Fold this sequence. Notes:
Elements: E1 24-28, H1 32-45, E2 48-52, H2 55-64, E3 69-73, E4 75-76, E5 79-80, H3 81-90, E6 97-102, H4 108-114, E7 118-121, H5 127-135, H6 156-170, H7 178-192, H8 195-207, H9 212-228
Parallel strand pairs: 1-2, 1-3, 3-6, 6-7
Antiparallel strand pairs: 4-5
Organism: Albidovulum denitrificans
Keywords: Phosphoprotein
Protein name: Response regulator receiver domain-containing protein
Amino acid sequence: MPDPMSDLVPQRAPSPERPLQGVTLLLVEDSRFACEAIRLMCLRSGARLRRADCLGSARRHLQCYRPTVVIADIGLPDGSGLDLIGTLARQSPRVPALIAMSGDAGAGAAARAAGADLFLAKPVENLAAFQQAVLSLLPDRPQAAAGDAAPFSPDRAALRDDLAHAAALLDPQAEGDLDYVAQFLKGLALSAHDADLRAAAEALLADHGQNAAPLGHVNGLLRDRLAASAGF
C-alpha cells in the first residue's frame, strides 16, 4: 500500500534540483554510518527515507507501505538482502526499483540473478551518482541538475556507533558470527576510507576465525579507533 504518511506531506513536483521529490525509499542497511550518507543524499534530492537494519525490520516496514525504491545491503545480521530482493522481484505489483548494495564489488552478478535492477558497490556517497542510479530506474522523472561530485561526509558519531557495535559483537561472550562481523567491518571501512581496517577485515573474513592473529588485529584496530573517536 502507499506510504500512509504521504497524505500528510505537501506534495511538490520533482525538479532538476530535487529530482527524487515524492520518491519513497526503504534502505535496508545495518551500518548507521553508511545509512547516514544515503539519508543526507535523499534529503538533498527530495526523497523520503525509511531505514531497516535487518530483514525482519524491512519486512515489517513493507507490511505498512509500498516504497518506490528498495535499496538492500547484501550482508545483514539475519540473512542476505538478496533473499528480500528475490521476494520483492516476484511480487505483483512489483516495487518499481530494486537495488542491491555491498562492500563486495564482485556481488553484482548474484544481485542481478536474484532480481535486482541495479547493483551499487560501497561506498555510496556521491550525490550525482546516487541520483543518476535511482533515476535510471524511474525514467518518467526529470533528469537531475549537475550534482556536487564531493562525497557526503556523515556524522562521525555514526561511525563510532558502528565501531562500538562491531566491538561488542566480537566480545567472546557475545558469540557473534565472525564472518558477518568481518563483512560488516569491510563495508564500514570502505565507507570510512579506512584502508587498514579494510585489510584487517578482509583477513578476518578469509581466516573464518581459525587463527587468533587476524581477530586480535581487528580488535586492536577497533580499540584504537574507538579511543580516537571518544570526543564524537
